[in-house]
Structure formats: C-alpha cells, structure tokens
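INTERNAL AUDIT FORM
Audit reference: QA-55
Scope: verify that the stored structure record matches its stored sequence.
Auditor: D.O.
Record contents follow.
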Amino acid sequence: MRSLRTFVGILAAATLALTAPHMAAAPADSWQGRQTTTRNPACAVLTTAEIQAATGFPGYNDATPGDSPGEGIGGGASCQFSAPLFAIDARGKAMKAPKGPLVSLVLIEGKNYTRTRAIGRGCTREAVAGVGDEAYFEVCPSDVKLKRTPGLYVRAGVKDLIVQMDVEPPDTDASIRPKVIAVAKAAAAKIR
C-alpha cells in the first residue's frame, strides 16, 4: 500500500511539473477564471482568501460552480470551496495538502426563501443572532447521519444564503458551526 501511495505521489508531482509551464490562464469569463468574474453569482460572493480567513483553514482552491442560477435549492445558484488532495513541497515532492473541509454556499436572489420555506418534518430552527437580517440552522434528525453541518439559512436584504461545511474528524459539528457562521457573516455583508 505504501508503494502505491508513493507511486501516486510521484505521478502527481510529475504531472504537475510537466503541465504547469504549459497551462494558459483561463479567460476572464470562463468558469475556471477568478470567482469574481464567473457567471455563477454564488461563486462571486466570497474569494478564496475570504473563505480561508472566515474558516481559519488554509489551502482552499478557487471556487467551483455547482448549480447554475435557477437550478439549485430555492432557485438559487451554488458554489463550493474545497481543498486539494495533495500539494508539492519545496523539494518538489508530493505531500498531503493542508486543507479545510468543503464549504458549500447557495445564493438565492429575490425569493424571500429563508422566511417562507417550510421546515422539514421533525426538524427545528435554531436562531443565530448577528448574521444578516434573519438566520437559523435547520437541524433535522437525519443530520446525525451526515458528515456535514446543518444548513445555515440567512436572509440579507433581498437575497438569501444557505451555508454548510463538511465535518471531518477530529472536528465536530459543534466546532465547525462557528466557522459556518463566520462564512455566513462575511457573505451576508457582501450581498446587501
């Protein structure tokens, strides 16, 4: 098993070394461009640096568009921030990348979704003060099985957000929720 991991690390490092010099910058209007120029409005809400600052986790990649506007939850657009599986150290060797858990952000425009959506069966709303105009975690019995925080629903002006993060040991739901709240605060301030 160790030799397979070593081989995969060497293969990844070689691939990166061979392709990096030949990679051209993506056009400004492409999905691979900076999230501030993407056509997916959810990816334009926060930069990678702002996600890192809010979560306290290093190593996030640029935003990855999920659902296009109108196709996500509540008719919104979604975006994810994830960390790479490996990184290259100063000596050119592959290593496990410093990473943070997946962050999911949904932006819903002009639907008053946070206030009007029906709560799931058996679920409760846990109010969160100081985030947008209204905010709550929707906690459901099925959340225990998930490796993700409950959704934090936020109303800010005429827009709504849903923010979630994966929970990876040794972190717990309780230790990740403040990071979800920090991401939601930063995003709510930007969309007003």
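Auditor finding: record pair retrieved intact. The beta strands are 64-65, 77-81, 86-88, 94-96, 103-109, 124-127, 134-139, 151-156, 159-165.
Action required: none
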